[in-house]
Amino acid sequence: MKYYVTTAIDYPNAAPHIGHSYEKIAADTIARYHRLRGDDTFFCMGVDENSQHVPRAADANRAGVIEWVDRMAAAFQGTWAALDVRPDRFIRTAIDTDHARASQELFRRAQAGGDIYKGTYTGYYCHNCNTFYEQGDLTDGKACPNHPTIAPEYLEEENYFFALSRYTDRLIDLLDANPDFIMPRVWGAEIRALLQRGLRDFSVSRPVKSARVVDGKPWGIPVPGDPEHVLYVWFDALTNYATAAGLPDDANRFADWWPADAHVVGKDITRFHCVYWPAMLMAAGLEVPRQVAVHGFMTLEGQRISKTTGNIIDPVELVDEWGADAVRYYLLRDVAFDRDGDFVRANLAQRYVSDLANDLGNLLNRAVSMIGRYRDGVVPTATAPEAPTDAELRTVAEAAVAGTTDCLEAWDFDGALDASWSLVRRANQYVDENQPWKLARDPDADGRLSVVLGTVAEALRLLSTLLAPVMPTACAKMRDQLGLPMAAGGDWLDLTWGRFPPGTKVGAPVPVFPRKDLTDPAR
Ligand code: MSP
């Protein structure tokens, strides 16, 4: 099976923050989950450079525009790499020439189909979210609903329009036929209401005179056949998903990879992804994506994340302090995908100590140490008849496997981690109840000791795969200590109980989540 997943492409007007990071970590987790299942997976991310507020950010930072976008692209890619987020392609919409060709191709196709016409736009425009607003949309008649400190500009300009209104019925049909088109389903109601109110056509170009000139050319992608206009930035930005699939240069690749399986985006941009984008594709005679996965918005310690108020945390700093696995785990465990959530530094510390160092880390450490000490490092294969407690751990493990996979399929990351943690917790209790250190002192309990150690090792083997999409580096370390090869494609299928390879030798026990001194006043 093929699986193509994308994230929103971020505006490089400022460095990435923890809210952007949540989305990228969620999408990366899903990409890794599909790779583990053996799917041929393609994961695309990028930066949305053609917005006019990007050159303005360069000015504010006293940088040349190209110098700025290069610097920002490196900052975004560096942050994603630090968080262990590994896209197969990273699109730069102002730099990658295949992207300009794809955007123009889509425009031409819609135009050829009669869905693009020239008109005059009068209304408001927010330069930060690049959204056209009517007076009634503005907060207190003045402020952008997404950017409370910004007053959108009143515009009266000639541009090209896309005949979105023609697509209302087809979009309603799309939702009716695909109840999982918008996931989690809670977000679908808002889009349905929007469609039922009826759609207005939207502008798909901006006049060149409103575009910043960079190296003698207007910033933005030229409208094909009309040098007086550049494409509306959302028109080109949305097209990035098709660019990465091969439009228009590589028809074979496009046939293989389009439509995308999932676009992962925040709740503020559902309208663009669930209404504009499918309609643009329909107009171009292309298939619509299979799913749009929508996440909530994050605040930081209860406040809106905002560069102007200085309320930001650099995700790289968090990684330096806690490691990428812990940051990924905390965000996906504590911030439910289908709701807004708050980043609380103390809760990250708490999760690190109790869930990662104490529960999971300790389980691994105890098992690997005891197998080393009592069995010369060879993982025992359970031979003695199973006691009820062994059977119970196996039942819990099987439920954890089913629960984790079902939840990942439904974009329910905290549910997936909860399901996996029921096994972590039960396995620790199992060790406490069976007290292998006592069994080791009783010559008659040798067979029982093997069963107990073999059973715990098996639980850890399953966990090292189940948790790998969320915590790839920690799970690689776990597998290394358990003497297991890396979980490559297809290993996911080996989530059947009792498949620990006979004769496996464990490595040295090294804490995967080292303890930290949380009383340090600098923290
Ligand atoms: N450039 C557009 C997206 C174009 S996609 C074809 C854009 N950029 S953005 O930088 O403003 O946002 C990028 C993504 O980050 C969006 O999905 C947005 O919802 C998400 N987030 C931005 N701030 C966020 C939070 N505070 N919390 C969670 N996600 C947030 O929109």
How would you describe this protein?
The chain has 523 residues and is of the alpha/beta class. The chain has a domain at 345-494: Isoleucyl-tRNA Synthetase, Domain 1 (Orthogonal Bundle). It has 17 helices and 18 strands. The chain has helices spanning 18-36, 53-60, 65-82, 97-112, 168-177, 188-197, 233-244, 251-257, 270-283, 315-322, 324-334, 345-375, 388-409, 413-434, 436-439, 446-466, 472-482, and strands spanning 2-7, 40-47, 89-92, 116-126, 131-133, 153-162, 182-183, 202-203, 205-207, 213-214, 217-218, 222-223, 226-231, 262-266, 292-295, 298-300, 303-304, 341-343. Strands 3-2-1-14-15-7 form a 6-stranded parallel beta sheet, with helices on both faces. The protein has a 4-stranded antiparallel beta sheet with strand order 5-4-6-8, covered by helices on one side. A hairpin with a 4-residue loop joins strand 4 (116-126) and strand 5 (131-133). Helix 2 (53-60) crosses helix 3 (65-82) and helix 13 packs antiparallel against helix 14. It is elongated and about 90 Å long. 5'-O-[(L-methionyl)-sulphamoyl]adenosine (MSP) is lined by residues 8-11, 19-20, 22-23, 48, 237-238, 240, 265-266, 268-269, 297-298, 305.
